[in-house]
Design brief:
By secondary structure, the chain is mainly beta. The protein contains 1 helix and 4 strands. A hairpin with a 5-residue loop joins strand 1 and strand 2.
Length: 90
C-alpha cells in the first residue's frame, strides 16, 4: 500500500530507525485557546514483537520529526494490555 502525502503544511512523524510504522493518522482541529492544531496518532511495531502507540501534537513545528518519549501512550505485547492501561480502575 502506498504511503499518502500529508496535507499541505503538515509533516509526517518519522519512525525511529528500528521501528516499523504500522499506521499513522493526523487530525486537524483547534486547541483549547482556538489555535489550529494537528494531532497525530501512530502505531509502531518494535523489535521483539512489542507494539508502541503514540500521540504527537503539531509535529510540523518541531525541529526533529522523530517521536519523543513523552509522545508514547502505550508500549506492550497485547491489545488487552493497551486497553487496561487506558481504562480507569473499577
Amino acid at each position: 500500500m502506498a504511503r499518502r502525502s500529508p496535507p499541505e503544511g503538515e509533516a509526517p512523524l518519522q519512525p525511529r530507525h528500528d521501528d516499523h510504522r504500522f499506521a499513522e493518522r493526523s487530525v486537524r482541529g483547534r486547541d483549547d485557546d482556538g489555535a489550529l492544531e494537528t494531532v497525530t496518532i501512530y502505531i509502531d511495531r518494535l523489535p521483539g514483537g512489542v507494539w508502541s502507540v503514540g500521540r504527537a501534537v503539531n509535529v510540523a513545528q518541531r525541529e526533529n520529526l522523530a517521536p519523543r518519549s513523552e509522545d508514547e501512550v502505550f508500549s506492550g505485547y497485547e491489545m488487552a494490555d493497551a486497553l487496561s492501561a487506558n481504562s480507569p480502575p473499577k
